[in-house]
Amino acid sequence: MLNVESIDLFYGAARALRGVSLAATPGKVTCVLGRNGVGKTSLMRAIIGHQPIAAGSIGWQGADVSKLSPHARAARGIAYVPQGREIFPLLTVKENLETGFAPVPRKERFIPNEVFDLFPVLKDMMGRRGGDLSGGQQQQLAIGRALVTRPRLLVLDEPTEGIQPSIIKDIGRAIDYLRGKGDMAIVLVEQYFEFARDLADTFVVMDRGAVVLSGDRASMVESDVRKHMSV
């Protein structure tokens, strides 16, 4: 469903991505690993359209979407859970979830029960402001907001960052459930190796803006991957 082919990305004169390729398919989790500052978030921003690419292509469901706006990509089923969550602190939980209505047809503008099945705490906090939630609850809200868009590709940028262990387990179970449905491709950026290892069907390791290791979980050599994740 997703085919990223040899993309380059620049911030001014600085080259952030160098010929990066990646694929994601329904019912599978593709994990992107690496230290801070190696280009993982730049790759995610390229996929969702927040940053233009200078070379290569991004294919989604058989079409080249490299030139499409973020909103147009969202309308095609691409959803993003950004690093740092970026929920709206002054809006209620309900209002935050409803911001996910923007790219979906009017008849689908309701919050799926699946969101509350995965994250029951959100149902109990619908009237609370997003900024009053804990970091872990905000992360659940950010994932729930993405699910409201009915995505076929879910892009998660370090969902475990700064999150308490019990909620990390909840997020892991949610990702595993979404994979098991078989109709959604998932791209997961992580620095928490054990979390990524347990969820990954395929993996890509980045260093200095390029892919240095890739393969399926069976071929993953833990020591080689950890070498590119340690500071």
Describe this structure in words.
- The protein has 231 residues and is of the alpha/beta class.
- The chain has a domain at 2-88 and 154-227: P-loop containing nucleotide triphosphate hydrolases (Rossmann fold).
- 33% of the residues lie in helices and 27% in strands.
- It has helices spanning 40-48, 70-75, 93-98, 113-118, 120-124, 135-148, 165-181, 193-199, 222-227; strands at 2-11, 14-24, 29-33, 55-60, 63-64, 78-81, 153-157, 185-190, 202-207, 210-216.
- The strands form two sheets. A six-stranded mixed beta sheet has the order 6-7-8-3-9-10, sandwiched between helices. Strands 2-1-4-5 form a four-stranded antiparallel beta sheet, with helices on one face.
- Strand 4 (55-60) and strand 5 form a beta hairpin.
- It is globular.
- The two termini are 33 Å apart.
- The model has no long low-confidence stretch (mean pLDDT 95).
Q: SSE order, as H and E?
A: EEEHEEHEHHHHEHEHEEH
Q: What is the CATH class name of the domain at 2-88 and 154-227?
A: Alpha Beta
- Provide the CATH architecture of the domain at 2-88 and 154-227: 3-Layer(aba) Sandwich
Name of the CATH homologous superfamily of the domain at 2-88 and 154-227 = P-loop containing nucleotide triphosphate hydrolases
Shape: globular
SS-based class: alpha/beta
What is the CA–CA distance across the termini? 33 Å
For the largest beta-sheet, the strand count, sense and barrel status come to: 6 strands, mixed
Count of helices? 9
Mean pLDDT: 95
Unreliably modeled segments: none
Care to count the β-strands?
10
Query: What percent of the residues sit in helical stretches (DSSP H or I)?
Result: 25-40%
What fold name stands as the CATH topology of the domain at 2-88 and 154-227? Rossmann fold
Rg measurement, Å: 17 Å
Strand order of the largest sheet: 6-7-8-3-9-10
- The share of residues in extended strands comes to 25-35%
